[in-house]
Amino acid sequence: MNEPMEWEDWLRGRRARRETGLRVAPEVIRRPESSKDHRLRKLFNGERGLPFKKTEEL
Amino acid sequence: MNANEINKTLVNIDAETDPTLKHLMLASLVTAVFQDQNIELVVVGGSAIEFYTEGAYVSGDVDLCVASTPTPLTGRIRQELMGRLNATGGPRSWQVAGLFVDVLGGFENLATTPIRRLKGPSGEVQLSPVEELIVERVLISTYPRDYPPARDCAKKLLAVALQGEVETDWNEVRRLACSSAYDNWNDVQQLTDEQAQSLEIRSPYDSDE
């Protein structure tokens, strides 16, 4: 807990963490709206952010 | 970091299309630039949760708070530091390398567990303690009214914590949830137990019953 996570370890764990989350909630859970919508949708062509990578691509 | 290193890093961040990686690379760079002035930043909210969970939750902005600063973080200092990143906007929100960065006020943290650290590509990124994020997200999911996006987020955060993919102090989660600051222990315990059941593992609160 006191030691920093290594970058390589974090990268390697991405898919496992995504798959764990998939067991309890839908794949993409980005909020549908927020107070920052105007600026976000303007920057991301009507979306609130970039599309997520698919689990199998992680 | 010198200007040449910063510019090279910004080019890489701008080209990155994976939102989670892009957020982390940018958080690492902003943290490094502020660290040069002995200003400590902490990633909070959705970006911190994304780094812990890979939960496909984050939108297009990175939120950071100020954990410590040797002198008041004035508008002039904020603009000067963010100016090194070719940022536009301010005084608390900027556009940088295809994302928004918000450097908010002081870091509000009641957890006694440490701020977690992740070695990012430009330097360490500090993350809000997972224990308080869990309790906070459960609170948002139920008060002032049910909010399903926050509930899904809390479920994913609990799941990675229960699986041991994020080291979590469950006694601290309970302490925070029982405190007057959150007062949502029943909700936290119930959601934790439900996720443990979904994952077919023992809940850390099983012995409480």
Walk me through what this model shows.
The complex is a heterodimer of chains A (58) and B (209). With 58 residues, chain A is an all-alpha fold. Chain A has one domain (7-53). Helices cover 38% and strands 0% of the residues of chain A. Chain A has helices at residues 7-12, 14-22, 37-43. Chain A is extended. With 209 residues, chain B is α+β, with helices and mostly antiparallel strands. Chain B has 2 domains: 3-127, 2-Layer Sandwich (Beta Polymerase, domain 2), CATH 3.30.460; 130-204, no CATH class. Helix content of chain B is 48%, strand content 17%. Chain B has 8 helices and 7 strands, in the order H-H-E-H-E-H-E-E-E-E-E-H-H-H-H. In chain B, the strands form 2 sheets. In chain B, strands 1-2-5-4-3 form a 5-stranded mixed β-sheet. In chain B, strands 6-7 form a two-stranded antiparallel ribbon.
Mean pLDDT of chain A: 93
Q: How many domains make up the coordinates of chain B? A: 2
Can you name the CATH architecture of the largest domain in chain B? 2-Layer Sandwich
Number of E strands of chain B? 7
What fraction of the residues of chain A are assigned to beta strands by DSSP?
A: under 5%
Of all chain pairs, the largest interface belongs to: A-B, 39 and 44 residues
* Shape call of chain B: elongated
